[in-house]
Task: inverse folding
C-alpha cells in the first residue's frame, strides 16, 4: 500500500477551509480599503482648509493681494473646506470643519 501524498478527502477539506477564509477576508479587506479612502479624503479636505485659510489670513492682513491667491474651497463664513476626488475608482467628498477641528468623508 502506498502511503505517500494526500487523500482526496484531505484535499477537499483544505480547499473548503481556504474558501471559508477567503469568504471572511474579502469583505474585511473591502471595508478596510473603503475606510482608508475616506480617511484620505478627510485628510485632503484638511489640507485644503489649511491652504485656503492661510491665503485668506494673508489677504486679510494685507500681505497678499486677492488676485494672487489660488483657487480654494475654503469658506471663511462657515470656516470649512471641502475636497472632492476619485480614490480607487470611487468619488469621495471630504469636509473639514475648522470650528470643531474634525473632518469627515463619504463616497458618492
Result:
Amino acid at each position: 500500500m502506498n502511503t505517500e501524498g494526500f487523500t482526496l478527502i484531505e484535499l477537499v477539506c483544505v480547499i473548503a477551509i481556504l474558501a471559508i477564509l477567503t469568504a471572511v477576508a474579502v469583505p474585511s479587506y473591502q471595508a478596510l480599503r473603503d475606510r482608508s479612502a475616506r480617511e484620505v479624503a478627510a485628510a485632503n479636505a484638511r489640507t485644503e482648509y489649511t491652504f485656503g485659510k492661510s491665503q485668506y489670513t494673508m489677504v486679510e492682513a494685507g500681505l497678499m493681494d486677492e488676485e494672487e491667491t489660488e483657487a480654494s474651497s475654503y469658506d471663511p463664513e462657515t470656516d470649512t473646506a471641502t475636497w472632492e476626488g476619485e480614490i480607487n475608482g470611487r468619488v469621495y467628498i471630504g469636509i473639514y470643519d475648522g470650528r470643531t477641528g474634525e473632518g469627515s468623508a463619504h463616497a458618492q
Summary: Strands lie at 80-87, 90-97, 102-107. Residues 13 and 99 are 57 Å apart (CA to CA).
